[in-house]
Amino acid sequence: MADADRRISDDGLPSHPGGSDSADHRLSTMFEIASILATEHDLDAMVSKLLVSLVETLETAEAGILLLYDPAEGCLKPKAAQGYDLGILRKLRIAPNESRTGKAFSTGKTELYPTPEITAAAMSTLTPANRAILTAAAVRKTMPQSSVCIPLINSQVKIGVLLLESFRQSGSFTSGDLAFLEPIADLLALSIENTRLRQELDAIRSLSEANRLKAEVISTLAHEMRTPLTSIKGYSTALLMDDASFSVETQREFLQIIDEECDVLQDLVHDLLESSIIDAGFLKLEVQPVQASRLAREVLEEIAHLSRKHRYLVDIAPQFPVLDADPRRIRQVLRNLLDNAVKYSPNGGLVVVRGEVLPDEVVISVADQGEGIAPEHLNRLFEKFFRIRSGLGRHVVGTGLGLPIARTIVEAHGGRIWAESVVGQGTTFYFTLPRSGSNDAAEDGSTGGQHE
Ligand code: ADP
User: Fold this and answer.
1) Is 366 touching ligand 1 by the criterion CB < 6 Å?
2) Does 274 share its domain with 292?
């Protein structure tokens, strides 16, 4: 927006140029703002750094709020704040024309409030709910001595408002200040729009990447499903043939193969179903006291039953606290991690489940001696449908859903999950669960021990 278009709508503007800020201050603010706009690509981080920089470097202002217009809700919402508690302030919903910021947004002009009385008069249009929020969020509980609202306009589209407040003296914002602030507001509006567009583009890109991975997985799954289905069909048809007579051992062998192939199919279908349930937001935790070491031993027994090539060890510290968690879901996380440890260390080796107790949380880990994961793949492991296509793992049947499912469950419990790996030596997956104060009694007295 050209400077001339944003004539101030208040005639009582002090005209001494430069204001109270030194030229040095302004120059350094300008540099800082330019560097934030050039380097910060996250919208929330960009606007909050920018506001901090403006308020801290400008001697005129001690507090400020940056509000962006939400077209869906038809109101201005705070995005960043200085001198206010943003957590409380986020509930603010300012309608166009309401109070100082709403007016600047509606008129598209810089609005100046040079005295506490003029400020109070402008704020008289605040809804009671917004007034209560503003009062609760304000660090200073007095009326500002002067304030200024600058609309953020990009290519004639109003996108928000920058409010700056001074608590020191009336008339603190001068024409010199505005000559400095308005170009910054224009730059800010442009950068906000660019950042929004970049974020939309990234979202579209990652959506199409997810779609590509999904299509790839569906084609792999169709292929993977055909193999067990062919076996099941072949052996069951053979068993049903009227003119064939098989010995009891042969019949048993056929049934055994059918049973195993059904398990493979069941796992694939289970992962797909679980993932779609979680996507639909149906993950509901049924939290109860959980004895983690007992649970880990039980899951390990199930897995050990399936793969006898590996050795297994549970090393969970004595006095491991009882956790507040959903046992079915934590079992699922452990099963996914242990299943992977076995699947992706095809030559056998030691699989260790370890439990560590920290002051606020417990850390449970599953370590294997498989071929490991290259660093460039480590941070993509928890993306849906991501599978490593190289190495021995490419022959393993899977969906790329086990780890994202595990992450959703762990995060729903308030924990974190990550992996560390050394290629050629093995991988360790870690997840944390918060310790609850109430259920911190020690476990059943069982201590760490070997399970083979
Ligand atoms: P799936 O095993 O069904 O492919 P996951 O989400 O459980 O899906 O795992 C995603 C990918 O992460 C796997 O395809 C594999 O490439 C890699 N991965 C997971 N666990 C391990 C492990 N313990 N060692 C090496 N690679 C692993």
Assistant:
1) no
2) no
Q: Are 354 and 341 in contact (CB under 8 A)?
A: no
Q: Name the residue range of residue 51's domain.
A: 23-201
CB of residue 339 inside a 6 A radius of ligand 1 = no
We report the CATH number of the domain holding residue 131 as 3.30.450.40
Using only C-alpha atoms, the chain has a radius of gyration, in whole angstroms, of 31
Q: Is the CB of 89 under 6 A from ligand 1?
A: no
Please say which residue of 279, 306, 333 terminates a domain: 279
Q: Report whether residue 368 contacts ligand 1, using a CB cutoff of 6 Å.
A: yes
Cα–Cα distance list, 408 to 299, 383, 390 (Å): 19, 11, 26
Q: In ligand 1, which atom is closest to the CA atom of 388?
A: 16
Ligand 1 centroid to residue 336 C-alpha, Å: 9
Please indicate, yes or no, whether residues 113 and 146 belong to a single structural domain of this protein.
yes
Q: Are 166 and 173 in contact (CB under 8 A)?
A: yes
**Residue 50 in contact with ligand 1 by CB distance below 6 A:** no
349 contacts 370 by C-beta, under 8 angstroms? yes
Rounded to 5 degrees, φ, ψ at 367 are: -115, 140
Same domain, 295 and 402: yes
Check: CB of residue 32 under 8 Å from CB of residue 50. Answer: no
Residue 219: pLDDT over 60: yes
The response to whether residue 403 sits with its C-beta less than 6 Å from ligand 1 reads: yes
218 C-alpha to ligand 1 centroid (Å)? 17
310 lines ligand 1 (CB under 6 A): no
pLDDT tens readout for residues 113-127: 999 999 999 999 999
| Domain stop point among 279, 302, 325 | 279
What confidence category does residue 109 fall into, taking pLDDT thresholds of 50, 70 and 90?
A: very high
Q: Is 336 close to ligand 1, i.e. is its CB under 6 Å away?
A: yes
Distance from the CA of 367 to the center of ligand 1, in angstroms?
Answer: 13
Same domain, 360 and 401: yes
Dist. CA 340 → ligand 1 center (Å): 6
Distance of CA 97 to the CA centre of its chain: 35
Q: Which pTM does this prediction carry?
A: 0.54
Angstrom distance (rounded) from CA 95 to CA 76: 6
Do residues 85 and 45 both lie within one domain? Answer: yes
pLDDT at 353 over 70: yes
Distance from the alpha carbon of residue 387 to the mean position of ligand 1, in angstroms: 6
Q: How many domains does the chain have?
A: 3
Tell me which long-range contacts 275-279 makes (C-beta under 8 A, separation of at least 24): 275/384, 275/399, 275/401, 275/404, 275/405, 278/405, 278/408
